[in-house]
Amino acid sequence: MTDMTERNRTDSPDTEKEGQQTRKPTRRGGGDPASRGRTTIADGVVEKIAGLAARDVVGVHTMGSGLSRTFGAVRDRVPGGSTKSVSRGVKAEVGEVQTALDLEIVVDYGVSITEVARAVRENVIAAVERMTGLEVVEVNIAVSDVKLPEEEDEEPESRLQ
After folding, report:
1. What is the pLDDT of residues 23-68, one digit of tens each?
2. Hey, which residues does 107 pair with through a beta bridge?
């Protein structure tokens, strides 16, 4: 009986609590939740973000070359066609952590092209980096035309009545 009494005393609630305190809690999944998987961003997503950011700059009349704007206008008028393309005039190359962009813009007559290009570059970089987390390594801007005040917008006449 002495053995049983000795054993009961050593297994007292005090020693059980000590045993529980030394046990480490198990974490499932391990590590930061943000590091459990991979996020990929399509080129088209970056192109849309950049296109919208570029259009927000005062002095940018439109995006894309004359030919792409003409095709885009026709595509916009076709029933069931795509909606207005916000990525027209934008080409993105997206890697895992970096992206590079090429933009083709038409500026309004009378604005400083260098100032508009600088503002477009700053706005596009800020928007893309904020929304995607990608580092923008370069934004190349090609000014393909100047919109004169007396010119009408190049929208082909619709053949549909």
Report:
1. 666 566 667 777 788 889 999 999 999 999 999 999 999 999 765 4
2. 60, 146
User: Tokens at residue 23, please?
Assistant: 């046990």
Residue 101: strand pairing partners: 92, 139
Tokens of 126: 């800020």
Rounded Cα distance, 41 and 12, in Å: 59
Q: What is the DSSP string of 42-77?
A: -HHHHHHHHHHHHHTSTTEEEES-HHHHHHHHHHHH
CA 3 to chain centre: 72
Structure tokens at 93: 């190359």
- Cβ contact 80:46 at 8 Å: no
Q: Per residue in 97-155, pLDDT tens?
A: 999 999 999 999 999 999 999 999 999 999 999 999 999 999 999 999 999 998 776 55
Considering only CA atoms, which of 138, 21, 37, 144 is closest in space to residue 88? 144
- Of 83, 85, 92, 88, residue with least CA distance to 128: 92
Distance between terminal CA atoms of the chain?
Answer: 107
Contact 91, 46 (CB under 8 A): no
pLDDT of residue 33: 78
pTM for the full predicted model: 0.68
